[in-house]
Structures are given as structure tokens and as C-alpha cells.
Write a structure and sequence with these properties.
This protein is of the alpha+beta class and about 800 residues long. Helix content is about 35%, strand content about 15%. It contains 22 helices and 24 strands. Helix 7 crosses helix 8. The two termini are about 25 Å apart.
């Protein structure tokens, strides 16, 4: 859930930092101020095209590609044949998916491949119905091979530059966002680009060591040997990135290539290999069969990132974070070495049917020199972090008493998609109903449904969740490619909750979340609060298994997720492209993200309208109060300090959007970092000085909903069980009891916070939405419209 404004500088780096695949992740360009001369560009390392691991398509791949293309032609909503127009989009999508920053391919490469651009249709499905039903995948593998070669050239160039460049940063050089820039025209132009990138990577490594601040004074303290260490680390990054790229199998090429074809039709149509299809199923089911460990790749070592509470790995007490898995064995089979193995392949070896045994050879952290073998039995692991949750906010009512409001957090509209029937059923609507009942039992006076960053999920679940708040009727209209419209309705039962309701959305609320929000808005059942609009994904996808078309294959060829229908609100307007516009719009940095929203995706389907659905009756519980709600909210937002911070961040981001560069001058970079540090420090200090609002927060899981009473409350700082009273006031306010002394409170005692002073969490949109709900409740009470027993 995106509950805080993302720091401007980190957003800037995410968008612009041009990195080789898998290399130098998590960089932050900060600052510095050394001077020097510009190093020459080394050329010896890139004079020839280097040898690569040449890949060939698997025997089934041509047939998979042909079937995927035919399914798109026959089932996609657009009914568009794979013709020259789609071929051009297909080619461009493939090139851009491999090289999104236009830093590897040369224009001469694209000229060489130009014949493919308008002939991928013929090469994929043939000239007509008498084709041999197998695609020619030469373009996919030839282009990928060239990409490998250019990537290796970049690594070789970087190695040479690391040895030759003096790495002084006193010029006006900048890194530029190249997503919309032309490709380098030739190798010499590419070298100049690569040179800037390597220098930027070196600069960030240097400044991450040297930048320090004491009592408001920013200094450079570069330890001895730092230059050698930076070079060694960058070389390690480059070597591992090259290893990853040049040791992929042909499945990856097919995955990228067919996804490019799918995205030529629309952004939400995808090819999913068997492994990708499994991951999609897990995300919908919120469960998997395995050991319950989240893994990550640490330069070739499969490493434990975190353990799922209650899973086999966690219960065994034999694994911990940062342990490495170096070999995997199935039951009584011999172990298979997994060092330097692709992480996805390792995961597939560890997952397996419920009740089966897997043996892991572990190199325990931190020294990794010893080995131990542990045996675990696979089980169904519940991913409870993705479940619906709730909060009860207990706060002063302004009249000497206290009131309660409920917040229902809905991360997605999950539903069990398991044809085998082995997974335990898990549905968003059932969990939301349990939480709503609990909130009602605890006598909340109104509810906020937080669907920010909810990507959607099951259409059926969206309809059922909406039905918990309205008394029957149509929820969404669905139009087929042939114009046939189906009205999907919820049941006629009384709503589970009929009290005051507000729904929160943002630019990352999509699909099923937009359906629910739009229906509650059209019925006049809930006030919608949030960003300028939701994402705008108003399309329906179906899963199409390729296996029935490939009976001779013993492997699972995966699935095509194909857009087959469009959503329309009960009012008749599509949610496609335009999304849902909230009733009350609050300042939000996400509104300005250039990558957010359907309108910023490639090849989106258009917006349109159809007639309104019959037989839907507005409750009209919101419209009469909107003018007053807006006036009250606007007045608060205008003077709210947190929203002032948001507006500052928006202004900063707008300036960045006009520039789209990152400086490589140390003096400028250190000044940017200094400004960021001082600005954030001032904000934290201001927040720490705010008076305690006397709020208590009760966090509720689905499991808690079935238990009597409430868990221990937290206050606004996230402290539990009255821990705030045990902390000296000076520490809460962010100062030491004695000038120059270190605060005496440490993190070693249960219930006592660490010495680092805490700031109130920054979520101004949620805070203001709580105030809006309070206003709404008050207005309903005055009008006599408030439901007595919601």
C-alpha cells in the first residue's frame, strides 16, 4: 500500500538511472565536490563484437509462438489480425523491452533488422491458413543475440574505463533519461553514452562512502582504499550482470518476444510461461505449496530474504535470514548444486506438492564456510500479508468524548484460481465481510475502504464486495467484441453495512478496484476520495491454456492472458483510459508520475460509452453533501502542513520533469543532497513537535475478526500498550534530556522504542479522509439520514 509520499530524490533516480541489466541496483546519486580532467574514452575493449552464448529455440517454441498469435487474432477484443500494423508495434515493443533506455542497440543494428519490422506477421503466422503452423523465430533470437553482444561490449568498455579514467567530477556533464531519446547512431556514440553511465556509477559508489554530516556541516571523508573498493564492487556487478544475461535459456527469449507481441495488442495481454503462470496463480490464491521462504539472488547465491510466519521453514527454526541455499534435493534423490543457477529455477526446485520432502544444503550466515542439510516437508503456505485488513481509529470527538471510525484496507480482489482443487479457498469478499462484521461489533460510526494501489483481481469478487454495501442491482456492464453487453449484478440481500462510507483511490487503483469504486459512486453510496483519477484499466482478461493445442508436447507451454471484454459503469461510461474521478480530489505526488495511468501505457484501448444499465436506483447519499464536504476539506488542505510538504514535492518533481537529467558534478550533487537532508530533517522535527492527538489505533487481521475483543492499541507513533508513557518526553520530542548527551532509552527493552526519535507517519491523504468521514457523519446526523444501526 502506498501510504507515504515517495521521496522526490529516490523517484528521480528510479526514473533516470541507466543501469545494465541486474547491475548496481538501488543506487542513489548524492553528491561530492572533487575536481579534475575528463578521461579519454578507451576503445580497445570494444573494437569487435564479442562471442556470446548463442541460443536456439526449443523444439516446441515455434509452435507455441504460432498458437499464441492465432489466439490473439481470434480472441482479442480488437479482433485485429496480425498484420503489418501489428508487426510494426511488435518489433518496437521487442526492441524497447530489451533496451528501454536506448543505450545498447545502435541505429545501425535497427537498420540491419529493419526488414523484420513489417514482416513479423508473415514470419509468425505465415501468409495464410495453409501455413505450417510453426513460427519462424529467427528475429527473436537474432535480435537477442545482438543485444547480448552489445551488452558484453558495454561491460568490456566499463572494465577498461575503470582502469583508465581519473574519475574527477567538476564538469557540467549530466545523465539523461533516454527512454524517448534516439538510439546511438554508431559504436562511438554508444561509447560516449556508456562513459557517462560508468562515471555516474562510480560517483554514486564514491559518494555513498564519503558523504557525512555533523551538526549541520556536510563534509567529505573518503577512507583509504575506497577507490580500489569501488572499482572492485563495480567490476563484480558487471561480471554478474553479464553472467545473468549470457546464461539465460531460450525460454526467456520466447517469454520476452511473445510478451512484445501481446503488448502490441494492449498493455494487459500477456504470454505467461509455466513458471510465470504459477506466479500469477499464487498472487490470486494468496497461497503456494512450498517451505514458506522468500528468496533473492545475491550474486549467484540463493539467499533467504524473509520467512513466512507459520510456514515450514519458520517453524523448523533451522533457517534464518541471509542463509544461503547451495543445493536442493528431492526426497531421497541426490542434491543438485544451485549456485549460479537462475533464481526462478531454484524456486521451482524448492516448490512442490503438499506433503512431499525437500532437502536443502545450507551455508549458514554469516561466515558461509560450513554446510548443513535440513529436511522440510512442503505445505500450503498462506500469504497473509496480501489479505484484507482493518483498523479501528479511536479518537477524541471534540466534545469530551471519543468516537470510532473503521478503515478497511483491501490490497487486491483475490480469489482462489486452482483447477486442481488443492489450494484452500480464499476470497476477498469473504474476508471483507468478516472484517465488516467486526467493525460493526465494535460500533464504528463510519468506514473508509482504502483501495489505493489495489491492482484489481477477480471481477466476481469486485461484484460481491460491492454487494456488501448496496441492496442489490447492477454493478458493472461488460461488453464483448461483437457489441453484446452483459449486466453483472449482485444479489438482492440487504447490505452487510449501510452506514457512512468513504472509498479511497489513487492512480494505482485499477481494474476490479475501479469497478467497485465506480459502482459505489454511481449509486451515490460512498464518497470517493483520492488522486485526480484511478488507473483507467477497464478491460477484462481471460486465461487461455496452450496445452490443448499442443498435445504432442510433454511440457506445459504456459498460458495466454488475453483481453476479451471491456468494463462499463452502470452509468454507461467506460472505466478504460479515463478511470474513476473522485468526488474529492487531494494533492498527491503520484498524480504527476509520467508512468502512472493507462493513458501512459503503450497501445491502450480507447474510452467510449454505452447506454446506462437498466434497473439501478441511486441512493443519493453523497451528492447533497458534496459542496459542504469539499468546502470543509479545501479549507483544511489549504492550511495543512503535510499537504504543504506534498505541494513542495510536486513542485520539485515538475522541475525534474522539465529537465530529465541527473548531474555528474559533485558540487551540484552534494548541494542537492544537502537540500534534501535539511528539508527532510526540518519536516521530521516539525512533526515530532506536534501535540499528541490522543488517537488509539487497533490493527485487525481476518483472524482477529473472529476473536472476541480487540488486540492492544497503538498510538499515533506506532507504540503499543501505553509504551509512550514510559518514554521521557524529551526523547519523544526528538531532543536529549541533557544538551549533548545521548538519550538513555534503547531498543533493548520490550515495549520501549529505540533512541532514534520517531516522527508521526506521513499519510496526509488518509488523515484528511478521516476528517472528511467525520464531516460526512456530522452532516448525515444533522439531516436525519444517518442509519441508526449500520
Amino acid at each position: 500500500m502506498l501510504s507515504q509520499i515517495e521521496p522526490y530524490m529516490m523517484l528521480k533516480l528510479k526514473k533516470l538511472w541507466p543501469l545494465p541489466v541486474g547491475a548496481v541496483a538501488g543506487l542513489a546519486l548524492w553528491a561530492g565536490c572533487q575536481t579534475g580532467h575528463m578521461a579519454p574514452v578507451p576503445t580497445s575493449a570494444v573494437s569487435t563484437v564479442l562471442a556470446t552464448n548463442v541460443l536456439q529455440p526449443d523444439p516446441d517454441a515455434p509452435r507455441i509462438a504460432y498458437i499464441a498469435a492465432r489466439l490473439l487474432e481470434n480472441y482479442h477484443y480488437s479482433e485485429h489480425l496480425l498484420d503489418k500494423q501489428i508487426s510494426t508495434k511488435f518489433f518496437d515493443e521487442y526492441i524497447n523491452s530489451l533496451d528501454p533506455q536506448h543505450e545498447y542497440f545502435l541505429q545501425s543494428d535497427l537498420d540491419e533488422f529493419s526488414s523484420y519490422r513489417t514482416n513479423l506477421d508473415t514470419l509468425t503466422v505465415g501468409p495464410g491458413p495453409t501455413a505450417n503452423q510453426a513460427a519462424d523465430l529467427t528475429p527473436a533470437f537474432r535480435i537477442y543475440e545482438r543485444f547480448q553482444q552489445r551488452f558484453q561490449q558495454r561491460v568490456a568498455f566499463a572494465d577498461g574505463l575503470l582502469q583508465e579514467d581519473k574519475f574527477k567530477f567538476n564538469t557540467d556533464e549530466k545523465l539523461v533519461d533516454r527512454h524517448h531519446q534516439p538510439f546511438p547512431k554508431d559504436l562511438e556514440e554508444a561509447r560516449q553514452l556508456w562513459r557517462l553511465q560508468v562515471r555516474g556509477e562510480y560517483l554514486q559508489g564514491k559518494l555513498s562512502r564519503e558523504f557525512s554530516e555533523t551538526n549541520g556541516v556536510f563534509t567529505i571523508q573518503l577512507p583509504p582504499g575506497s577507490s580500489t573498493n569501488i572499482i572492485a564492487e563495480l567490476e563484480k556487478h558487471y561480471r554478474w550482470s553479464e553472467h545473468l544475461l549470457t546464461n539465460q535459456n531460450s525460454d526467456l527469449v520466447l517469454q520476452v518476444y511473445l510478451n512484445a507481441l501481446a503488448h502490441a495488442y494492449d498493455p494487459h495481454t500477456d504470454y505467461m510461461s509455466f513458471n510465470k503462470a504459477q506466479d500469477f496463480s499464487i498472487s490470486m490464491n494468496l497461497s503456494l505449496f512450498g517451505i514458506g521462504a522468500q528468496l533473492h539472488d545475491d550474486y549467484g547465491y540463493c539467499t533467504i530474504y524473509t520467512l513466512v510466519a507459520g510456514g515450514p521453514a519458520s517453524r523448523s527454526k533451522l533457517l534464518k535470514e541471509k542463509d544461503r541455499i547451495v543445493a536442493v534435493a528431492q526426497s531421497n534423490q541426490p542434491p543438485v548444486d544451485v549456485v549460479d543457477m537462475d533464481l526462478e529455477k531454484v524456486v521451482q526446485k524448492i516448490r512442490g506438492p503438499k506433503g512431499t520432502e525437500v532437502r536443502l544444503t545450507i551455508a549458514p550466515a554469516p561466515d558461509f564456510t560450513t554446510r548443513k542439510v535440513i529436511s522440510l516437508t512442503r505445505e500450503e503456505v498462506k500469504l497473509e500479508d496480501g489479505e484484507a485488513k482493518a483498523k479501528i481509529i479511536d479518537l477524541p470527538d471534540g466534545h469530551g468524548g471519543r468516537s470510532r471510525i473503521g478503515i478497511l484496507d483491501l490490497p487486491s480482489f483475490y480469489a482462489t484460481l486452482d483447477p486442481s482443487g488443492k489450494a484452500s479457498p480464499k476470497f476477498a469478499s469473504i474476508d471483507v465481510a468478516k472484517l465488516l462484521k467486526k467493525l460493526k461489533q465494535e460500533h464504528v460510526s463510519g468506514i473508509i475502504v482504502d483501495m489505493r494501489t489495489d491492482p484489481g483481481g477477480s471481477l466476481e469478487e469486485a461484484i460481491k464486495v460491492t454487494g456488501l454495501f448496496i441492496k442489490g442491482g447492477p454493478v458493472v456492464q461488460v461488453r464483448n467484441f461483437d457489441g453484446q453487453v452483459t449486466v453483472e449484478s449482485c444479489g438482492d440481500a440487504d447490505p452487510l453495512y449501510s452506514g457512512p462510507l468513504v472509498v479511497m483511490v489513487n492512480r494505482f487503483s485499477a481494474s476490479a478496484a475501479e469497478i467497485a469504486a465506480a459502482a459505489l459512486q454511481d449509486y451515490g453510496r460512498a464518497a470517493i476520495v483520492g488522486d485526480i483519477s484511478t488507473h483507467g484499466k477497464g478491460t477484462v482478461q481471460s486465461l487461455n491454456y496452450l496445452k490443448p493445442w499442443m498435445l504432442s508436447s510433454t511440457n506445459d507451454p504456459g498460458q495466454m492472458k488475453i483481453t476479451i471484454k471491456k468494463f462499463y459503469r452502470v452509468s454507461g461510461a467506460s472505466t478504460q483510459l479515463k478511470g474513476v474521478t473522485p468526488d474529492l480530489i487531494l494533492p498527491d505526488l503520484a498524480s504527476y508520475y509520467s508512468e502512472a495511468g493507462e493513458s501512459n501505457q503503450d497501445n491502450p484501448l480507447p474510452w467510449d460509452t454505452i447506454p446506462a444499465a437498466p434497473n439501478f436506483t441511486k441512493e443519493n447519499l453523497v451528492q447533497p453533501y458534496l459542496p459542504q464536504l469539499r468546502a470543509l476539506s479545501d479549507a483544511r488542505v489549504l492550511t495543512n502542513q503535510d499537504f504543504d510538504y506534498v505541494r513542495q514535492d510536486i513542485d520539485q518533481y515538475k522541475k525534474f520533469q522539465l529537465d530529465h537529467t541527473v548531474t555528474l558534478n559533485e558540487h551540484e550533487a552534494i548541494k542537492e543532497k544537502e537540500d534534501d537532508v535539511l528539508r527532510n530533517r526540518a519536516r521530521d522535527e516539525e512533526r515530532r513537535k506536534r501535540p499528541d492527538p490522543g488517537i488509539k489505533i487497533y490493527e485487525l487481521t481476518v483472524k482477529d475478526a473472529g476473536e472476541p475483543g480487540l488486540p492492544p492499541p497503538e498510538n499515533w507513533l506506532g507504540l503499543t500498550n501505553g509504551a509512550l508513557s514510559a518514554v521521557p518526553e524529551a526523547i519523544i520530542n526528538g531532543v536529549s534530556p541533557v544538551p549533548g548527551a545521548t538519550p538513555a532509552v534503547t531498543g533493548g527493552t520490550k515495549g520501549i522504542p529505540s533512541a532514534e526519535p520517531k516522527s508521526p507517519p506521513m499519510d496526509p491523504m488518509l488523515d484528511e479522509t478521516e476528517r472528511i468521514l467525520e464531516d460526512y457523519i456530522s452532516l448525515l446526523q444533522k439531516s436525519g439520514s444517518l442509519t441508526v444501526n449500520p
